[in-house]
């Protein structure tokens, strides 16, 4: 009996009935997207792969093929021949997308290979989901994957086409620990990552699975981390040059604030010390002039003339949603001024390319502004306008991504698409660590956005919003939601206003003192005239 059973299993493997491996049932929220991997046999690397939709194989309809992409962008398919996995992505999910789907491989002489999975689209939170399907880790390090669940059943962590772990164990040499400390979520920890650990896995809870793709890369060395030219696909977080400049400018403002406090001492000086008052006024006027020079817009005074590189020229340029050739032109002289420290002393330079597309009309993906400022603890909204198709995401440069809701470095991220052609990213509970570069992602396009998080001002903000409109006012009368006023600039304007008020008061004091001196002088002269007249009479 055992011999017959072994023979049937061998025959089943030879016929290739189960040569496609995928998930069996997934659950996704309305409006979201899902990527499902389909593992196939190595002998079908060059075959056409496709996705078919329908409750039964003989009545299903073709949705997308590797040799015939979908024009609507609703369905996307890609084939990784090295990993022997083709993935299908379904975007903008609705209730009508709840159905059986078939991963299939086209066979010229014979029946096509197929394996189905069931997709359930829910109005509320899915029964099993993860914050993001794409996770990146470094070789030798550890990563955590949180699987949120609302259903019952055994929890597992499985490799696609490989083994599973229910509590602790190893998969392909990587240590796996599954823990459930909180209700409704279990955490999978992969430690001692290896290059072979890259690939597709799945969270399993009961009869539901959620695919997760893990990419393991080499850990960057010290030289690469300090000298790498960061673009849209880095492996380390960029250095925030803006924060250091802002700290220098803020320290200048604090020095100016200390000089303004002198006006509290001026009014207790006796009128006989006018020379000292004039000296103090001259000193503060000199400081005011220096303050204006320090906080000007010249790159030479802020960055230093030798530091005007390609990145600073590009960063100081304002983006208006449509790229103009005249504004975006960067000459060779801009690039060649890069300091020698930008090169790696030993070995080839670290590099990464990006493609810039200049369009006559509206770009396929753009934002109203690339520089956004928010206050610590508050929320900001970023509207990403698009005309192309594909999955929408919000990613941190060198960090993680969010497709619908989740968190990045402690800040809550929500992505909503209430209007066609635009999706809104809301970051709430901002922290100081939230400052840095992010990007809107739609399909294969990205748009970088820089976010600066500062401390919330106390008095300055209320004054800006209550004053009546006045073109000559020292403070702006409106603060746009997507264009918040920088804290440093606000402090500088407040200092300038205090200096002007102080100079006006000082001028009035000097005039008052001069009038008193003139009256005293006239009184003394009149008194002397009376004495002389009395002496003559006597």
TrEMBL record:
Transmembrane segments: 264-288, 502-523
Compartments it resides in: Membrane
Keywords associated with the record: Membrane, Signal, Transmembrane, Transmembrane helix
Source organism per UniProt: Pogonophryne albipinna
Comp. bias intervals (Basic and acidic residues): 335-344
Residues in Immunoglobulin domain copies: 23-122, 132-217, 369-454
GO cellular component, one term: plasma membrane
One Gene Ontology term of the molecular function aspect: transmembrane signaling receptor activity
Gene3D superfamilies per record: Immunoglobulins (2.60.40.10)
Entries under CDD domains matching the protein: IgV_pIgR_like
Coarse class of the protein's main subcellular location: membrane
Pfam family, one: V-set
Protein name as annotated: Immunoglobulin domain-containing protein
Residue ranges, annotated region (Disordered): 313-344
Record bears the keyword rRNA processing: no
Signal sequence annotation: 1-19
Classification via PANTHER family: CMRF35-LIKE MOLECULE 3-RELATED, POLYMERIC-IMMUNOGLOBULIN RECEPTOR
InterPro entries: CD300_family_receptors, Ig-like_dom_sf, Ig-like_fold, Ig_sub, Ig_V-set
